[in-house]
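Researcher: Here's a chain I'd like modeled. Treat it as a single chain, no partners, no ligands.
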Amino acid sequence: MAQTITCLYKNISELNSFIDLNELTEYPNLLVQVFTGTPESLFIAKLQKEMSDKLPLAHIAGCSTSGEIHEGRITEKQTIICFTIFEKTEIKSFLLNRSDFKDSYEMGKALARELAIFNTEAVIIFPAGFDVDSTDLLEGINETQPNMVISGGLAGDNGLFQEVFSFTQDGITSDGLVAVALQSGHLSVRHFENYQWQEIGKSFTVTKAEGSIIYSLDDKSPLTILKRYLGDAFIKELPKSGTEFPFLLQYRGEKVSVFIIKLLENGAIKVNRRVEAGETLTFAYANLEDIIDRSLKELKQLDQISPESIFIYNCMARKQFARDFTEKELTMFQKIAPSNGFFSYGEISCRKGGLPQMIGHSLTYLALSENSAESKKEQQNEFVYEKTAQFNTITSLTHLMHASQDDIKALNSSLKTSEQYYKSLFDNNADFVYSTDLKGNFTSVNPAFEKTFGYSREEIIGKTALSYVSDMDVQRVRMHFYRALRGKEQYYNVYIDSKTGEKNLFQLKNIPITVNGECVGIYGIGRNITEQKKIEEKITELAFFDRDTGLPNRMKFTEQLEMQLKRARKKQKNIAVLSIDIDRFKIINDSLGHFAGDMVLKEISERIERVLPSGSYLGRFSGDKFTLVLSREAAVDKVMKASKKILDEISHPLFQSDQEFIVTASIGVSLYPDDGSDEHILLKNADIATNRSKLQGGNRVTFFSMEMNEQAMVRLELESYLRKALQKNEFYLCYQPLIDLETGNLYGSEALIRWNHPKLGLVSPGEFIPLAEETGLIADIGGWVLRSACHQNRRWQMLGHESLSISVNVSAYQFQQPGFLQEVKMALELSGMEPQYLTLELTESTMLRNVEYSIQVMQSLQDIGVKVSIDDFGTGYSSLSYLKDLPINTLKIDRSFINNLRLNTSDVAIVKAIITMGHGLSVKVVAEGVETLEQIEILKELKCHYAQGFYIHKPLMTRDFEEGLSKYVQTHS
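Model: Modeled as a single isolated chain. Structure tokens:
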């Protein structure tokens, strides 16, 4: 049999008498369970020693309590001693201290190893200490020794949650456990637990936890959650009140209770088991109606098997919120068999084949019997509980809670769906998302935020957002923050440093967080736009800035000029607009290629920028044209001074592709408000003035006048006609004779182009040749002149004038064309004329713009037999040192020196010097523009070789020249 007798401890004398009366010292298999409501170590130690001395063979297992169960009755702060006498069952007791093990799990494994040796049938466990993790303890037991029946409870201290104790005959622990193992082939064990928890309210996700300490739920402190849902009174009564409203935790497919055992200073809570981040907790309450129904059913079944002893381990909360039923339930247990135990801080239960759990807010028992067979009672006890009015009220409230719970569940389901949508959007958003409170402190950040800035969530939460912004941006960001709090969406860009110090540009959006109509903070959404900004800047640069020079292009310059004009109108100030055009730049492009041309333009732009006055804005308008705004130095004299500085700077020699160039520019100026009121008119008028500078030879500054506008219109019309003149055969050639001064013989002629337009009539070469050069038409026109002149001269040679030569003027543009040499060869081949009868006349400026290239082409002409002449010699600005290196045949003295050629004039000395130099260089000298006999006589005396001019003969049409040739032949035959 497994008989239990009990006594209510008063003093040692009465206890000894009770032991002697019941002859308890005689039993070898005696289990003594002590449940004391006096949680004092001295009292327990004294009692333990007295009992050990009195019952040296007994196995003692006891603990402090939060109420005792004595023969089916509830006692408070008493000491109950239960003696269970076994005939066929062996007993072994254990005491383990947590400090002897790494953790509670290892302590459980150690206990299980001992139990395995003993071949245990059932185990009773009394853990003691708030640092003992009962969950880990039970997992350690199950890992090593599964499939055991386990029951018991956590030691208490009358709801004080200060210090608890468990003890055996061998010692006492306040941070460990006591266990009793029962082993017998004849022991019948029935185990039962009754806990009926009902979830209520929303679920909370553990967002930060360590061991059994929970630091945050849904990113909020647990204290905040408890205040909101259970109120200040609940918090005030913690941890005692925690047994009435625990959390439910989903654990290994089952819902287990989690009790609050301590409220920490930082708002965190300590619970009775290990909890991990990501797990879900829900508030729970005990469903009393279900508890009663299940208990009555179990009592009826238990009554049928007639156990000999019942050990009950009940939750302290039950004697508080369901005292009436708890008292009657214990009375019913006592009807079946002696029922003793205690009210605990958590109940341990494990049916055979199941998993051990620390379930809490429950009743668990062991019903024991050493009977060989269970005997059915003939007379069954009646187990009925008459529900009190208070219970009916609680039942009604329970139904109300269920109904409300269903409504809340539906609402929570909807909210949860919304939260999941939000969480999914929040967690998986490629943009970083964050929230702050009303003070600007971070309350949440998503993974993208952590990844973007390199800070962990823990490093960010609670910190002010402004601490991550540079000092120069704080005021601006604060302004956007307060605007967002007032309900206005804010968009702005700001530079933010990452944890590694990398600075990036972010685009932010701030919107208010509104709860129940009140703003409680802001949401922020942002993305890194550093690369996007670079691309935008690159696009802007490509759209508004010249790639080669980095200067504003036409669009940007015009936009800036428009802004400058608005300010000028407002302040009534003047503005100067300059158009700067590089003279004959196409020659450089065509001779060296566009890449070299771009490099030259870049250097020219840098030169211009070096000499600009303050308040200037320079742009590249197009091609070789620059535009400039002078907003501070807009007076005429100051504009002229600035312009001359620019011309002087540009004209310095420059080197490209190992060659030296002399570059000049033409500048046109228009003034606001005199020459126009908007940007387009001012630019047009500056351009017109530039064209006038170019017509006057370039390398000069011209201010716009209304007369120029009229002339520009005429010039546009002339250009239109010029483009069609060659196609319509409106050009023809005249030929001016060239004579040998020594013999008086005619030796050749100079081909001169004329244009006879059907509407304009005869157009002067001085008007259309510069225009043809400027527009590039001169290449086609020059080619036509060359071919026509060669063809006509060869025709005259075939008429009997075999030694007749022809001179053709070549423009700088035509000469610099890469295919010019081939063009000369083709003209000679088509005409059949020998090369030595062709003389090409070049100006000094043509050759000296690119000396090396010019010498190369001239030498190639010499190599095929074509003669080269320098035209208008004496008007150039180059050094005479170049002359000795030029492969030339003839120098042609400019007419300006011949016009005033009289005795006793300085021009005689100049002409004499040129002729003398020609003789010294072994080149022929030609005087052009001879108009008097005196000039002829002087030139003969100076030993000039050839002459041409109106005195000899004006330019003649082809037919007239032929007639003159015939007469000349007749005269000299």
